[in-house]
Structure formats: C-alpha cells, structure tokens
Amino acid sequence: FTGKALYTGMLNEEGGVIDDLIVYKMEGWYRTVVNCGTREKDLAWMNKQIEAFDATLTERPELAMVAVQGPNAIEKVKQVRSEQADLISELKVFQGLPVGEWFYARTGYTGEDGLEIIVPAAEVAEFWDALIAAGVAPTGLGARDTLRLEAGMNLYGNDMDDSISPLQAGMGWTIAWEPADRDFIGRKALEAQKAAGVPSKLVGIVLETRGVMRSHQKVVVEGIGEGEITSGTFSPTLQHSIAMARVPYDTGSECNIEMRGKLIPARVVKMPFVRNGKKVFE
C-alpha cells in the first residue's frame, strides 16, 4: 500500500551496516529517512550506487522533522493540524503519507505510538510552538535515549556500525533472503558469515540490583568468553538498569558485568524491555 514504511539496514560489500534507515514506498518513488549524523557518508554511498540505475537521488535540506510520541501524540497532532485530522486518523502503523510539502508518518524511535512529521523548515518553529501550546512537552536526547533503549532499538555508532553485520546487531529479521537470486549488496558476506558461524550477537541485559550499566563495560560469560555493553542506562519505567551488549554467540541466560573492578551478576533477556509503557520481558 502507498506509504508503507520499512526499517532496514544499508550495507557495504562486507555486510557491515553503513546506516539503519526507514524507507517509505510511495507512488513511483521512495522516501528515505537516514540518521543525521551519517548524512555525508550515506549520500556518498547512495550517489555511488545510483550510477548503475536510471534513477535520481534528491536530498531535501529545506525540510525539518519533528517526532511527537506517546499515548496522546496522535490526538495532540490532530488538534494542532486539524485540517489533516482525517488523514492522520487513517494512517496505519508504519505508514507515511504526504500533504503538500508536509509528510505524516506513524513511525517512531521510542516504543510508543506516535508520529514523525516532516515539515518545511520555514514552518517548523510555528508548528513547534503550536505543539507546546497544545500541551506537548519538549523532550531531550537523554530522555529519548532511555525510551529507545527500553524499546530495544539500536543506536547507530553504539550498537552497530560499518564493521558489524545485521546478524551481529539483532537485525537479522530485516534481511530478505528470498528470492534466493536477490543479490543485494553484502549478501555474499552475510551468507559466508552464516555458514562459518556468527561469532557474536546483540542481547538485552537487566541488572535488578543497584548500579547502572554503561557503554563499553566488559561482559563476562563464564566458560564462554567476553563481550561488551554497547548501550546502557537506568530505565525510568522499570526502575533498574538495562543494557544492550554484544556477547559471544553461545551466551545463555546469565552473565557478569565488570563494574568498578567487581563482577556483578546480571540476566540476559529477549528484547524489547518495554512496549507502550509496560514491561514485556520475562
């Protein structure tokens, strides 16, 4: 259907993740939303690849983006943008539709329902002020980071990068292996990694005692090997620390975290930790 969104990885020839992004399938064209911090290398890679195709790539630096997330987000945006209320109401989860230069997408990076809205940069300040006036609270990157981590969502540069494959980053579900002759960039490298045995995996870790796990702390898995915390924080919803870690592939349900020279027992769990404000792991 028009506007269907897909979360995926953009891979290099070695199967490493150049970036993770969302692609919207429009009528005769595609809209991609990439990470701001990887803009230059993403554009360079896309422009290099597009030379082999009869297609054009257009950057839109004159557009801004605002994410409104949470259980009341959609109603608040409909209140502020009442002329588009019907279109917003009809959006399926993971769908985005344009209205002129505006674009409303029922996507997000928080584990909550809500919208990501592309707005002409010249109009974004007015839109922001209208949201504030409607009672929407501005949220900083630190708060956003706790939400995405509770939701088990990767942060590029922390949880994966150019040297890490989707199979090592909890992104195996994003790979379309069929049809078998679909020769996407990085496929041969991923197939070789699968055949040889994926050396590591990304897991969720919960620390239900005192302490807060942080990036780069060592994870010790008794009898198997060592890994590393890639993202860690204190979860406001759960009231204890949660983390993502890259650990040896054979890691089971228990591990130890090296904190201040001591090994602290922790549990390995299936992510996400939280969805729509509720604990979901066992």
TrEMBL record:
Residues 2-178 form the GCVT N-terminal domain. GO terms for cellular component: cytosol; glycine cleavage complex. It comes from the Bacteria. Keywords: Aminotransferase, Transferase. InterPro entries: GcvT (IPR006223), GcvT/YgfZ/DmdA (IPR028896), GcvT/YgfZ_C (IPR029043), GcvT_C (IPR013977), GCVT_N (IPR006222), TrmE/GcvT-like (IPR027266). GO terms for molecular function: aminomethyltransferase activity; transaminase activity. Substrate binds at residue 116. It catalyses: N(6)-[(R)-S(8)-aminomethyldihydrolipoyl]-L-lysyl-[protein] + (6S)-5,6,7,8-tetrahydrofolate = N(6)-[(R)-dihydrolipoyl]-L-lysyl-[protein] + (6R)-5,10-methylene-5,6,7,8-tetrahydrofolate + NH4(+). One of its GO terms (biological process) is glycine catabolic process. Its EC number is 2.1.2.10. Residues 201-274 form the Aminomethyltransferase C-terminal domain. Belongs to the GcvT family. This is aminomethyltransferase.
